[in-house]
């Protein structure tokens, strides 16, 4: 695990953004696993900035997002589909048919998860971007007694609901989501994780220094061959 501690979120966004831009320049049809939440936003700003300057094109890039809320219309301002378009895709030349999400409104959840897992393993993710929950979740893989393999429907924990409900001012936050499994995340050739703020300090300590245990899902990353972690001083304060 390569660990980099930086001053602030803006610096991390630039460093991780550069990493992604370099990777896209080297392999224009790269397959990216993408994350939502506050952590990746500066990275996305860097990437679309470079795209707008003509330094990189996302025309052939293919993306798979980690997760999506259940029973939230795709067009809702809080759906991760909307988030990704607003924070990244709409400011780039990416082709809409190349962006992929789990369908949180699927009637047959099992079939939907199977479809996504098959598409993911066929595509093969080159770089997976991750944030981390205060409770050590990656994607929406919440602390549990076992590591998940493929995509599934998850009941969100109180910690996650508390962290994310600030975005839901009109309708209540969904308590269920579909998420890529830990096993699928681990299939990515390279993983880049971003953590900022002291609320993430316990999770970062458990992920890096703790035992590999499903009670901190991110700890499984200790077993991956190519993980880069970028965090600010507050997230690193217990290390
Ligand atoms: P955040 O969420 O980037 O908004 O802190 C990260 C996560 O819950 O995985």
How would you explain this protein's 3D organization?
The chain has 7 helices and 10 strands. It is an alpha/beta fold and 239 residues long. The protein has one domain (2-232): Rossmann fold (3-Layer(aba) Sandwich), CATH 3.40.50. The strands form 2 sheets. A 7-stranded parallel β-sheet has the order 1-10-9-6-2-3-5, with helices on one face. The protein has a 3-stranded antiparallel β-sheet with strand order 4-8-7, covered by helices on one side. The mean pLDDT is 97. The protein binds 2-phosphoglycolic acid (PGA). 2-phosphoglycolic acid binds next to loops. 2-phosphoglycolic acid is lined by residues 37-39, 131-133, 137.
Binned, the helix content reads: 25-40%
Alpha-carbon Rg, integer: 17 Å
Classify the secondary structure makeup into a structural class: alpha/beta
In which order are the strands of the major sheet placed? 1-10-9-6-2-3-5
The CATH class designation is Alpha Beta
What are the distinct ligands in this entry?
2-phosphoglycolic acid
The low-confidence runs, each spanning 5 or more residues with pLDDT under 50, are: none
Question: What is the tally of beta strands?
Answer: 10
* Main sheet record: 7 strands, parallel
Global outline? globular
As for the number of domains, it is 1
The oligomeric state of the chains shown is: single chain
User: Proportion of β residues?
Assistant: 15-25%
Mean pLDDT: 97
> Can you tell me the CATH architecture?
3-Layer(aba) Sandwich
Amino-to-carboxy terminus distance: 14 Å
- List the secondary-structure elements in sequence, H or E: EHEHEEHEHEEHEHEHE
